[in-house]
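User: Fold both of these, please.

Assistant: Here is the first one.
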Amino acid sequence: AAESRAPPPGCRDGAGGAGAVRAGGRDRGGRLRHRVQGAGPAERLMDVCATVRTEHEIKVTLIFEHVEQDLKTYLDKAPAPGLPPDTIKDLMRQFLRGLDFLHSNCIVHRDLKPENILVTSGGQLKLADFGLARIYSCQMALTPVVVTLWYRAPEVLLQAPYASPVDMWSGGCIFAEMVRRKPLFCGNSEADQLGKIFDMIGLPVEDEWPLEVALPRCAFPPRPPQPVEGFVPEMEPLGTQLLLEMLTFNPYKRISAYDALQHLYLQDGGAGKG
């Protein structure tokens, strides 16, 4: 399997804002070959966790299976004309099941993008990089600086209160990207990103615009919604319906992960036509 071709144990395999990633391995007895440097007694929490306590900080090492590629790499490697429709549906089912699990436990990921989704050689999808994930409640204030710009929900761009629907918006952008093989909204600032979003979904009505936000509705020219087919021409009609429900401006009206899993597009007998 592709996952077995991991870098040599101890090799630095990557890094992010929350820490570094190193490759490891197991001996014939199933024991880890590469031990955490300076690790004392380690407690195992589910699949693993070693804590290293120093004078100034506590380091936590999580041990996971090695997955060679993220979704972006997976899409880039797909031969033309792209992923088969059934493969996209299977990936979306897995993605939404993962999100439904998070959201049902009051966890919002907040940084969903193709680079933070892993795909094994067998086509198994895994949500990754929970560095910005938070447990939330309706009364909780969360920082507005989350999610890579192109996958950021309108309420985050406007610095309005938000919760789990931000993940569904990011998921809609990723869904479209699976079909298009390129990002859907590529803005270079918050205002430009909103403008590109409104180019497709139209400028929301006044009643839908949140109060006391960074940008007033009058900052954007009126524009009607455009057919999704102009942005994602390869998507079948039922997929278009689901995409629009995921890319609904009002987060209270945006489809949930649970409801998205019930959508006809993702059912085994779902026809391509709406």
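And the second sequence with its predicted structure:
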Amino acid sequence: MKKYLLGVTALLMAVGLSAYTAPPKKKIVDLYWFVVKPGYGMLSGFSNTMVDFHSKADVVPTGVCMVWPWTYKCVIGFDPADVDKVNNKLLPGSYFPVAIGEKRPTF
């Protein structure tokens, strides 16, 4: 009976302590950041004709749209799978950004 009680206690402690372990860190992926052309800031899906390439980085570019108040999309980030890496353009079709950076007052 003592072995059984010690086994159950050890199991409960293992489950309880596992709740305090840190989750594995995700690898930060460099996104391809684009500036939205005027007139397209209110949309959710974008094609190559609606954006201009800005940079490739794992952080949001700043200082691109310096006007306040910010309402409409100005800088958006796309997954590398959505981008033609040779020409730094979106592949044909419509894509949804995985990150939204700076905004601007006009769409």
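The longest strand covers residues 51-57.
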